[in-house]
Specification:
The complex is a heterodimer of chains A (about 500) and B (about 140). Chain A is an all-alpha fold and about 500 residues long. Chain A is about 75% helix and about 0% strand. Chain A is globular and about 65 Å long. The radius of gyration of chain B is 25 Å and the shape is elongated. The relative contact order of chain B is 0.10.
Amino acid sequence: MILPLFPLSHILLGLAAIAWKASARATLIVGLIVDMALVAIAFSPAAPWLSSTVAGGWTDAIGIRLALDSLALDLILLTILLELAVIIYLWRQHLRPSFVILLQFLVGAVMALVLTQDLFNIYVILELLTLVSFLLVAYDRRTFQIWASLKYLILASVGMSIFLLGVAVAYTNVGSLGLAALQRAVAENPQASWIPLAAALLVSGVSVKAGILTFSLWLPDAHSAAPAAISAFLSGLVIKMGVVVLIRLAGVFPLALVLQILGAITGIGGAIYAMASKDLKRMLAFHTLSQIGYLLIGMGVANEAAAKGVLAYALAHGSFKALLFLAAGAACDVIGSTEITELARARHRIPLRTRAALLLGTLAIVGLPPFDGYIAKAPLLNAAHGWANQIILLLLGIGTAASFAKLLPLFKGPYRRVGNDPAWESYIVLALPIVLFLPIERALFGPASVLPAMDWVIAAESVAVVATGWLVHQICRRLSFRPSESLFRLEPGMFAILLGFVAIYLLLRLG
Amino acid sequence: MGWLGGTTVAMILFAIGTTALIVRRDLVIKLLALGLVNSSGILFLISIRFQPKMEAPILPAKVGIPIADPLPQALVLSAIVINFAILALSLVFVMLLVERYHSTDCARIEHAVETEKATLGSQNLAADPSGADAQEAIP
């Protein structure tokens, strides 16, 4: 009965932080050590009883099953990495106890979500994540933060209501909330009339939380408004919780086509908006969307190599996106502006290590070898069959490179030592997996998973994609094309959720 | 009235709630509509696996009378608590916004927030004492 300790330890430490306010900061360290110890136990070969358990000793029909599968392990490792980086980043700042408590609850909820195998439990934890990230986004109480997080709460709450309807429809027809029972019921009678309805409700509900266009129109505002450390957590980790639920649902329902279409829309849409964005944090937030597109297409391809590629890419994306958000937050704090042109003009005042971290993150996200963006993307490129997928992945790569080409002026000289970096150690923590991803992927997913990354053709293709992206940037710079931002207001976001649900339902019904 | 079950009413409430969320501009009314949407989910959950003339699943059970499925009714408790928390917290945030803008009009607040955010960067830059930006800008 060790699996419940993953979430429970963080919730208890959060409560301890309420009780002993003076040592609230220390609970973050304790939580990290507990996580590492639990993972060490999970990795030891003498513990096969770890893999799956029903909490509280209930029967499978009404109990909540927790399972530590490769997906859960992958995201727990990512959580520990981000926890370490964020703790170091925040260490020299003044931390209020309430902030520490929310952070602990956020990590605890993440741990619970990756382990659970129960539909209603997923609903409860997603709501907990919504509430905690709602409070964290607006922690500094600035007006645009309050508005961004209020919009997030309203849209996410409607999405979760839709998810709850899906849970109810599934329970009516299956009689159990466990994913395994649901999978059996769908496999026995794949033509049953309730399946499209339940699948559409569940998928469109969770898509609101997963950063999928056109469901998650709250995302650019919320992720760019949040404090840097919180943005890193939200973009690197919390947004993937929706993706985790989608991966679990894709194992139950036939969702391949839906996921590929959603992935194409999300990826291309995110990349277009990122290319047009002039604000650094907002551009990074749009790129969260475009990178979720990669994950969705990888899930939609639905073969084993692609599934491993999705896990590896989730890990890699967490590391470089957190690095980019932390470094961007530090740079914007020094300069006092988030405009990319302003940052480039005042680049000599940005500390050198922060600029180096931004450069490393940029090289990783555009997918240049030998960094983790490329190594994790290569299996996806290799496994994505069909010309449509290939073209979309190429366009995504070009769009990513084209939007990050905007940052190039930031990395020009002069290189003088200015100020001291507030938290350069956290960059090192995140830079290590970015540079050393090959052995990590080999250890986690087996030697076969790194073979595509060794392929010269794929490496050359990636470099060519980045070069094309740079050319596209040079062309687009001269056009003053700006897509409308009013799409990201509250009412269009609400309307898009309902429209998206109808579209997914029709797709599942007819397709 | 046999056709008017709990699930039908829940669907109607959901439709009213989402429509109000889209068309009404007042933030407080939007939150009321959000409450309606969330309640419709709860009503739907307790209406499934229930037929007329069923007893509530409370011990001691009467012999011979079918009882409703107790699991959804237990789940509803968590859903109600969550929805309470969401409404309470979002009302606090609406209060903060009203304190600053003296309006609950969603469009007006959105416009004010956007203009405020657009001017934020340049203000900070203007306050920069070193004057390094002006030097950089010349070439």
